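Before relying on records like the one below, remember that each one covers exactly one chain. Contacts with other chains, cofactors or solvent are not represented anywhere in the record.
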Amino acid sequence: MAVPKRKHSVPKCKSSRTGTMKQIPEQERPYEKCASMGPDRLSDAELLAVLLRTGTRGETSLALAQRILTEIHPSGILGLLHLSLPELMEKKGIGRVKGIELLCVGELSRRIWRTMSMEEAVTFTSPTSIAAFCMEEMRHMEQEELHVMMLNTKHALIRDVLLFRGTVNMSVASPREIFIEALRYHAVSIILVHNHPSGDPAPSKEDKRLTERIRDAGSLVGINLLDHVIIGDQSYFSFKERGLL
């Protein structure tokens, strides 16, 4: 009786999306690529894959990173500055641990940018330097925030204090709260900074009234309001620059 020939199955090559990282050529794996070529040679997805470390069942860390960047924001990696932990955890493959890791990546990038900006703009003598210091952090915010920058006699930053989050209006942003903080830090002058989530930095009537109240209150207590800068998306409005202070 003839013995039937055994068919030899050829293993299918799985892609980086559905296989494991071991099935990707070593020189193309994000971790090894970073070690041999440097982090600047990695794509956004590859950098994120290194940080995530592991993927999900049937999905490599690289595939997970690519999908996350596609889903979280039209501009990809900027979404890390926009989403909360619950919103991140709604994405397939992101649990609490990975969600917290992604939040920390976004916060770390903000702090690095602020530190670099502070080193480059030690003093705030122009609206441009103020806007440069705040732009990258505040232009991505989806809620309004009102900050008071406390300055010394040389216009160097003593402290940047977040006073309010939400709609900045007359009933919320009182001169009393602002100057309590200014006096606490022995500020000689202050700068108001807040953002418009719409991206349009044009001041509202409330913004103008608030600026007038803070200016007048400051003259009474001897703390000068140098400027009120409104941050939009890659644009700003300066009350001083427009001759309104």
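Residues 21-112 form one domain.
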